[in-house]
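So, is this right?
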Amino acid sequence: MWNYMASVAGTASSLDLNDSAGNSTGIEFSISGVANENQTSGNGDLAAGIGLMRDYLRIDSGSSTSPVSVTGQFSGLVVGGTYDLYLFGQGQYMAPSGGTNRGQNSLFTVNGTSKQTGWDGVVGGNGLFEESTSLLNQGEYVKFTVVAVDGGGSLGGVISFDFANVVPGGASPNPVDDFADNGSGGGSRYGALNGIQLVSVVPEPSSMFLGALGMLSLALRRRR
């Protein structure tokens, strides 16, 4: 279930994220320093009619040579629990046909590791929804595996990430390569956050069983 939010006065929050069945979870998400981008008539180079592309959160650094970063946070998680975090980020204009507003992909950072969304190179999209792993394997979303830390008080377990526009040059570049080059030799002043997924990672029963067998074997050896 891709969750998405609308912003109010620069702060986006969903007090209760939904699970894969559409039920509320009690897990909270918040992010500040963003604006809501609503494309009621479609999304420029991207196909119309896709809900996550019609309404997304946007950051604006004011310049295609300057990065800006904001922080998003999940709370209400299990402290020490492991989660797969999926972040989908594509703005209104992706085709690199020139102009500093083109190439509106996003850079996400979790625990010092940065990953960048990209573009499939087909105006209107190629119909595939794929993970972005490198310049040669670009996709619409990135994935992190993260352990929730203790946020203290009522926050419970928390996971945080940084969300930035992509600027490969200038005085403060944040990646080496721009996966969705705008054709003008610079990055984009905009970044987009269209949707999020947070999936709890649970060990497979077979793995748990093998672990139990190993412990039993060790106990028997000690008895002998």
DSSP finds two helices and 14 strands in the chain.
